Amino acid sequence: xxxxxxxxxxxxxxxxxxxxxxxxxxxxxxxxxxxxxxxxxxxxxxxxxxxxxxxxxxxxxxxxxxxxxxxxxxxxxxxxxxxxxxxxxxxxxxxxxxxxxxxxxxxxxxxxxxxxxxxxxxxxxxxxxxxxxxxxxxxxxxxxx
Length: 145
Fold this sequence. Notes:
By secondary structure, the protein is mainly alpha-helical. Helix content is 86%, strand content 0%. The chain has 2 domains: 1-77; 78-145.
């Protein structure tokens, strides 16, 4: 497995590795902001300015990731790779929409058991999006060998 990952990383173009690096930095920033937000609210700080700040801050790395993906698609010269990336993003969005619809129906059925707090739902959506996108890329590349 370790060899396969090394080979896959060596096959990336400079644009792809740069985009992955920037997305990883944005993800780390999002994790730090989420941890700081959770720690602050867990210890009872409920000042209005802090709440508004921590409501807006997590959107910045997410917006940066969306911009990075758009920039990558605009700069990618290989039509096949661009098509694979767009399909992966669409599959990731489809999984999120489907998951949210199922979760909403379950909450309507039994709100006490199925409801999630907004922070958990946001992180779950984000994780599902990137996991579904990664699986989509792997399936597409395997199918088109």
